[in-house]
Write a structure and sequence with these properties.
Elements (H helix, E strand, L loop, with lengths): L2 H4 L18 H9 L3 H9 L7 H6 L1 E7 L2 E6 L14 H17 L7 E11 L10 E9 L4 E9 L5 E12 L7
Antiparallel strand pairs: 1-2, 2-4, 3-6, 4-5, 5-6
């Protein structure tokens, strides 16, 4: 008899529940549109603008905002695990996409934004709830008028590199000055 046959996998004792609350994104997006990207990122970090609903869903937060650099943090929880007990790869993808996109935002004027065109990730080591606080760092590589590029790194609680990523972003709105 297998372990799955001896344990009731649908037992109420194994049931978990997580309630997620978020602010409607429309009013926050409207408020952010009047700010430079740096002002908006600082406002999210400092709690003056609500974080995006995805950040609340996954549970990550912005911890560092500098020109061309963003750091996000996540205390991993089992609701992000897959069936083999590791954090689902989409968790890292969401973290890095957000960190890299926000890094680009830090150097954009009000009315300018970007959207992800592509996201490439290399998973170097698995992450789990035992990984400690996970950090995701996004850095601007090149800011352009039509396309911009960023690089990202996810590290576990001990500082070990777990995921490396690159992304291309399409620029929307007023064109920035190339750096």
């Amino acid at each position: 008899m297998s372990a799955a046959e001896t344990i009731d996998l649908f037992s109420p004792d194994l049931l978990r529940m997580r309630v997620v609350e978020w602010q409607a994104p429309g009013p926050a997006a409207k408020a952010a549109a009047a700010m430079s990207g740096m002002e908006a990122m600082c406002a999210i970090r400092d709690g003056r603008l609500p974080p995006p609903p995805m950040a609340r869903l996954i549970g990550f937060r912005m911890s560092l905002v500098e020109p061309e650099l963003i750091v996000m943090e996540l205390d991993p929880h089992e609701s992000l695990e897959n069936t083999i007990g590791l954090l689902h790869g989409a968790t890292a993808a969401a973290l890095l996409d957000t960190a890299m996109g926000c890094a680009i935002s830090t150097v954009l004027p009000a009315g300018q934004t970007s959207v992800t065109l592509d996201l490439k990730l290399a998973y170097l080591r698995p992450l789990s709830v035992r990984s400690g606080t996970i950090t995701a760092e996004g850095k601007v590589i090149k800011l352009g008028r039509q396309t911009s590029y960023a690089e990202g790194f996810i590290r576990d609680g001990k500082g070990n590199l777990a995921v490396h990523g690159t992304a291309t972003f399409s620029m929307i709105g007023t064109a920035p000055k190339p750096i």
